[in-house]
Amino acid sequence: MSSPRYLTLLWPGLPWLWLRGSMAGLVLALAFAVVLDVALLLSCVWTALVEWEMVLGLWAATGAIWIVATGSALSAFPSPLPVAREAATEAQFVAARDAYLARDWLAAETQLRALLRADPTDGEAQLLLATLLRRARRLPEATAAFETLLRSDAGGPWKGTIHRELQRIRAASDSPEDAAEPHLLPIAPGTAAATAREAAA
Fold this sequence. Notes:
The protein is mostly helical. The protein has 2 domains: 4-76; 83-179, Alpha Horseshoe (Serine Threonine Protein Phosphatase 5, Tetratricopeptide repeat). The chain has helices spanning 14-20, 23-44, 52-76, 86-101, 105-118, 123-135, 139-151, 159-174, 176-179, 192-200. The radius of gyration is 26 Å and the shape is elongated.
């Protein structure tokens, strides 16, 4: 637990809020803050307002929320990649990038999704996957992927690129003739279309 990101475990909900941009994490963090503030006020300021047993119960509930939230965050926390796997992960990203450059969308997407299962916080892989989805004309999925990356810490270095890609998606959505541009597939030799083309030539 040497990584600074584990410091987010000190406050319930913060791991999901800080590292994933989760709305549920925000709600949990705010709820814990309210419960803790009420417990402190009733213990130190408004001591005669409620019975001591209620204050003790409130502190017990606060501690229970903290323990449950921390245990839950530990179980769902993405584990850091071991050093021994860094070379393999880099090789997997390079293979995905090469497949993308060769316009082999299926192979590139398969590699990228496998890479993101191992390391969900890999910003480069998220960016390449979102760009791939846009190039493959899967615009709703691409928009969701870009917006998720934009809200996360991993997307920080590429905010300008993400905004440009989102503008391209909006432009493609506004001009349906561009969005509906057909993908041309090679015609296998020996088919009727290929024979007709050869005859015309």
